[in-house]
Amino acid sequence: MSHNWYEPALASLPTLLGFGVSGYAIWIGWGNDKMRDALIKLNSPGADSAYIRVSAIFAHFGLVQVTALILAIICQALNYSPSQNSILAMGLNFVGLSKDFFHFFKPVGDAFGYFFFVYSIMSILEATLALFRLATWFQRLGRT
What we know:
Oligomer: single chain
Helix content: over 70%
Order of helices and strands: HHHHH
Radius of gyration: 22 Å
Structural class: mainly alpha
């Protein structure tokens, strides 16, 4: 039984990326200017504002998702064995390499890509908790 890690990644990552973009849009559009100004001023001494911290969480979430998606696309594209008469095989043969040269790197590439795929799924929790934190800040700021 052969299963490639990138198949579920390519099926799910675009949807997860849409979740992150939607969450960021909610973050940018939530509340009014008074609330955003209050969040920009809400910080610990020597730390970034609450607004910047939540924005950084969504930026991190998006970068991890896009990285995992790009790695899945690359791994899918490189998952083939060139025929002996192909230009790639002849080029590899010309420099003294086997046509199966790239198969030596497949386990490393798969491990690296799968790590980012799992990490991107785990970062959903971070983005979800950031939205929850945002709701508690709005509630706290609404009372003042």
